[in-house]
Amino acid sequence: SISMVQTAEGVLSEFSSMLISMRQLALHAANNGSADEQMLQADQLEVEELLSTMDRIALSTQFGTKILFDGSNAVDGVAVGDGLTFYGASPVTQQAPTKQGYSVDIEQVAARAEVNAGRRMSLEEIAKGASFVLKENNRVMEMDTNDERNLKKNIQQLLGNFRRSPETFSRENTEARLADLIARSLQKKADESGLSVIIVINENGMLTVKHKHYGSRPNFAVSTNLSGLFGEKPGTIKLSSGGQDVSGYIQGDLAIGEGQFLHGTQGSPTEGIIVQYDKELGHRVVYIKDEQGRVIGQKLVKQTNEEMVGKDVEGYVHITQRSVVYQVGANRNQTISFSLDNLRTRQIARGVENKSEFNSLADLDLTSSTGAQDSIKLIDKAIQDIGVLRGNLGSFQRNSLESNLRNLRISSENLTNAESIIRDSDMAAEMSDFTKNQILIASGTAMAAQANQIPKSVLQLIGSVTQ
Fold first, then answer.
1. Where does the record place the Flagellin N-terminal domain (predicted)?
2. 374 CB-near residues (< 8 Å, 6+ apart)
């Protein structure tokens, strides 16, 4: 078992080295100021060769006759249902008791924390200058429209168009374009500062700030010098709210929600299952009718949780359990399991958001600036995933296999000592019986000899008298 794990560790070490080489190539391609088309093609060819090598290693690495990383020694699954995605399972996860799989029933849709402005921004206050402060964890972003050269220039141009020709450039249209301009500038500034927020103008023309991640944990704060926007007074700090974790049941057992992910309950057959429900509450169109029932308009109404999830289950999760099982004791069910993930490039770095729409490591394309940047993102995710697998494998070897081996050696030594003690006890008992028997034999012999002496003594006495 330990030898098999060490073989797998050697493969993961080689994968880590190849991923680092790919990242260096992606960085070189991203530096397009010093790279021409031929150099980009050369980088791409080298990356494709590395990807091909990774696939070959994954499909050919064996321990005995067992192929390790082709997915045949891993727990796998698939989710069936609108909005459901299978994300993972563990070696302790049991296969579903029915052909349909484990049922997934969503009770609460996940939501992101957000802050909504209380009103629209006016031309007059934008002309004077608007400042914003966003804080998320330990990161802070500040922006003043008067300090941003390009932004200020664009604002002045839109204001000038309105003042010169208000008939052509209406107030409402100009305010909407200014708000959109400020929102895009805030988004760019937030991205540069490393804040995980999304800044948009909502359907009512008001500024909305949302966290990129779902759940109750992510949060942020925002403030501005514009009174009534995020608070009655300028500079009022408004904390985000509304973040919720998804909640629901897997096969009737209450699951643990974290963001958009449901986790199977520990100790249940669903332990280790992770499934994502990626739907979120949006808006639906409601038609406005007059007294005669004729449609005279429409409005957007936010969906409710009940409308989204309904009463029926949202879908099912099918689990295929093929984890490697090791017998670590002499008795029944004394086993431990470990899942050796599928390391083909089509299965690595999946689910990473990117502009190039790369689905996995196999899709890397360094021939464009955007592709190179997105490739770096996917390679970083792959390095992280391989690192986690190496850590789990090393922990399994040290804390499970080697620890169990030490315990078995101690047990073997104790059994040997116990056998020796038993043998010593048996020998002592036999020697005691032997000694007892020897004493009895000696006593019997002595008594017989003494009995034989009596007649001889009588005869001697008789002989002496007759003389």
1. 2-73
2. 354, 355, 356, 358
| Residue entry with tokens 């470990």 | 338
Which CB contacts under 8 angstroms, 24+ apart, belong to 409-412? none
Q: What angle do CA 207, 117, 123 make, to 5 degrees?
A: 65
Tokens coding 127:
């002309």
Q: Report domain extents, the chain.
A: 1-73+330-414, 113-239
State pTM to two decimals.
0.70
Pairing of strands 62-63, 283-289: unpaired
- Residue range 1-73+330-414 forms a domain whose CATH class is mainly alpha
d(C-alpha 71, C-alpha 346), whole Å:
12
Contact call for residues 264 and 253 (beta carbons, < 8 A): yes
Distance separating alpha carbons of residues 93 and 318, to the nearest angstrom: 11
Tokens of 304: 């409710």
pLDDT digits (tens, 9 = 90+) for 286-305: 777 777 777 777 776 777 88
pLDDT digits 0-9 by tens, 396-417: 666 666 566 666 666 666 767 7
How far the first Cα of the chain sits from its last, in Å, is 100
| 113-239 has CATH 2.60.40 classification | yes
